[in-house]
Design goal:
The complex is a heterodimer of chains A (82) and B (603). Chain A has four helices and no strands. Chain A has 82 residues and is mainly α. Chain A has a single domain, classed as Non-ribosomal Peptide Synthetase Peptidyl Carrier Protein, Chain A. Chain A starts with a helix and ends in an 11-residue tail after the last helix. Helices cover 42% and strands 20% of the residues of chain B. The longest helix of chain B has 25 residues. Chain B is globular. The relative contact order of chain B is 0.07.
């Protein structure tokens, strides 16, 4: 989870502490289409996965990212300090 | 700018996102506190699709090289209008470099996936059509902007619906794109303002299979994977650095485990690994690559901890030592530390630290040089000697926009320079030395043969350069067509040989007043009174044409201190100093002493 939050906070330039499962493009102004592309790149790099186009278009919030990563076999440890 | 450079260096960016984040960060800083005097460049990128992220990545890459860029991207699918309309935002932006990136998918349109709905004859015509479209775009840019143009060639597709029969077609899809590339390469070979960027080669290098991330292509029309943007920017930077004359001149080499395997002092003459053996070949071939750089004009030097006589024996007697004493402009083979050797090399060769590239297998030596002399470009040498040639072949710092005759003979000229120094050292009287040099100068109006070298001198000369105005070949050509300008070149010869074309004067000539726009002399021939002879010649010509006043301009830079008092010493008086430009005046009729030891002819 920490790595996911690190990437989200770095690309979206937001505080990692403020990220929840519900965080979404609607709640974060910097989550625009450009940064969405960057997120895809960074997540694919960091977790060594390749998303399908459908997976990318279906993501609506952080929870969806976690589920998608899970389907690719990425186990995210819940960060107890989050 | 140094702070920004340091910030990027410590952040160690890798992915495209790293570069983009840095660009946002630096961009914010720069808006608050613009950096003081540093190199800048205005880049316009025209592309057939929106290259998301390129602006940010290129920005950070330029900053990392010490150049503050201003980058303009043309609007989505607007490139043709922007290029063709003289009043477009593109031309208002006034770019130094225009990058034209037309991708093959756009160019082929329907034919990209359905190439064989057309006949071979039509494909042939297509090549001519597209070639003339590209040509007219380039011509329009040349007409409306005073910029260098970087023109992408086209990524030859890997796919073909005909599969293995593709190459049996009278004029197939791949052949048509290859012919277009060949047409473009041929067209601009002699055009000094246009550089064809081998995008097809770039794609091959990164792997054509991976150039497009199809998901990103459908989502965002990205025809090049975001992850490749740092490499693409690196490729662009090679040209940017050239335009800003940030060219490396000298390759400084270590000896043990660099030019040969093993340690000469321990393994001995017979023991070092060099030659057609399993462990000697990497070094033998590495020397070939170095020699090829020497032939294209890179100055070679040695900085090595070794016993001089042992090394000399290798130079003279080792059957596979391809590099000889005569290829090295200077050698530091001693037990001093690498840094002081580097400093004394810079002094002897009279070139700036930032012109040096250092190749040493020893990591500690590299770190010391990196830390103490941050201007020196230290190559990250791999531990495995079999990768040396790859490392050096991929290094792009020696690239030059033009390769003149002077360049190709540079190595030889530096050896002549060494002989001059030897003469100077054995004569203790400087006047006697200058007399014995028998210097001759030939001053000539610029012509087609000398234009490339004149442009190059304006690009590269930093020390004895009164105004440090950088010109492209096209600028010089324009001056020649304009009767208001006189462009002169000066060739210097002496008893040791031809120094080549080493001086340039550009004069804005009105009826009564001559303004010296550019007066420069390569550092190679400084300290011999040549500048005095050239000024004497200029003043005499001014007098002959009835000019009353000659005005010399001086613009101080960090590097041109040697030129600072030149006009003052030559009897000019300071008339005004505005916008950091000093205007020095002198009556043309006032006599001026031509240095006695120099013979000058004006053709």
């Amino acid at each position: 989870m920490k790595r996911l939050k690190d990437i989200l906070s770095r690309v979206l330039e937001i505080d990692a502490q403020s990220i929840t499962d519900e965080t979404s493009p609607d709640s974060v102004s910097t989550w625009d289409s450009f940064n969405s592309l960057l997120l895809v790149c960074e997540l694919e790099n960091a977790f060594k996965v390749k998303f399908t186009m459908e997976e990318v278009t279906k993501v609506k919030c952080v929870r969806d990212i976690k589920e998608t990563l899970g389907r690719h076999g990425v186990q995210l440890k819940e960060d107890k300090y989050a | 700018m140094q702070q920004i450079k340091a910030l990027i260096a410590t952040s160690k960016p890798k992915s495209a996102a790293d570069y983009i984040m840095l660009a946002r960060h630096i961009g914010g800083e720069v808006r608050q506190r613009p950096p003081e005097s540093c190199a800048t460049i205005r880049i316009a990128l025209l592309s057939t699709f929106t290259i998301t992220g390129i602006k940010e990545v290129l920005f950070t890459k330029c900053c990392a090289a010490g150049i503050m860029p201003d980058i303009y991207l043309c609007g989505y699918q607007q490139y043709a209008q922007e290029v063709l309309s003289p009043s477009s935002k593109l031309y208002l932006f006034n770019p130094d470099l225009v990058i034209l990136f037309v991708d093959i998918q756009t160019l082929l349109g329907e034919q990209y996936l359905l190439p064989y709905t057309r006949s071979d004859a039509k494909r042939k015509r297509w090549v001519e059509e597209k070639f003339s479209e590209i040509l007219s775009l380039v011509q329009a840019i040349k007409k409306h902007a005073k910029a260098a143009i970087l023109l992408h060639n086209f990524n030859v597709p890997l796919h073909s619906p005909l599969g293995i029969l593709e190459n049996k077609q009278p004029f197939g899809l791949k052949e048509s794109v290859e012919s277009l590339n060949a047409r473009i390469r041929g067209e601009f070979k002699k055009d000094p303002a246009v550089f064809v960027f081998d995008y097809d080669g770039f794609c091959s290098r990164v792997g054509k299979e991976g150039v497009t991330d199809y998901k990103m292509y459908y989502l965002a029309d990205l025809k090049i994977d975001l992850q490749l943007l740092p490499m693409l920017s690196d490729a662009y930077l090679t040209y940017v650095k050239q335009i800003r004359a940030m060219v490396k001149k000298c390759l400084v080499l270590d000896l043990d485990n660099t030019l040969w395997g093993g340690i000469l002092g321990e393994d001995g003459f017979e023991g070092i690994r060099l030659g057609p053996t399993l462990d000697g070949r990497p070094f033998m071939e590495f020397q070939k690559v170095i020699l090829s750089l020497y032939h294209r004009g890179v100055i070679l030097a040695i900085n090595s901890k070794n016993n001089l006589d042992e090394v000399m024996r290798v130079f003279r007697e080792h059957p596979y030592m391809l590099l000889k004493e005569k290829h090295f402009a200077a050698m530091r083979i001693n037990w001093n530390d690498k840094v002081s050797n580097m400093e004394s090399l810079a002094q002897e060769l009279n070139i700036a630290m930032e012109s040096f590239v250092f190749f040493d297998d020893d990591k500690i030596n590299r770190e010391i040089v990196k830390n103490v002399l941050p201007e020196v470009c230290v190559i990250d040498v791999p531990d495995d000697a079999s990768l040396y040639i790859k490392t050096l072949l991929e290094f792009d710092g020696f690239n030059a926009m033009q390769l003149t005759n002077e360049d190709k003979q540079k190595g030889q000229m530096y050896v002549q320079q060494r002989k001059r120094l030897e003469l100077k050292n054995c004569l203790n009287n400087i006047d006697e030395y200058l007399k014995r040099l028998e210097t001759r100068i030939i001053v000539k109006k610029a012509d087609a043969f000398t234009i490339p070298r004149i442009a190059q001198l304006t690009q590269k000369t930093n020390q004895f350069n009164m105004t440090t105005k950088r010109y492209l070949e096209d600028d010089i050509r324009r001056c020649l067509l304009d009767p208001r300008y006189i462009v002169l070149s000066a060739k210097v010869e002496d008893k040791f040989g031809d120094n080549g074309l080493n001086g340039t004067m550009i004069i804005e000539a009105a009826r009564d007043v001559w303004i010296i726009d550019t007066f420069l002399l390569s550092c190679r021939v400084l300290g011999r009174g040549i500048e005095d002879a050239l000024l004497a010649c200029l003043l005499e010509q001014a007098r002959k044409t009835g000019v009353k006043t000659v005005i010399g301009k001086f613009i101080p830079t960090e590097k041109n201190a040697p030129a600072k008092d030149f006009y003052k010493k030559s009897g000019f008086t300071l008339a005004k100093n505005e916008n950091r430009t000093e205007h020095w005046e002198r009556a043309a009729s006032m006599p001026y002493q031509h240095p006695k030891h120099i013979a000058l002819t004006y053709e």
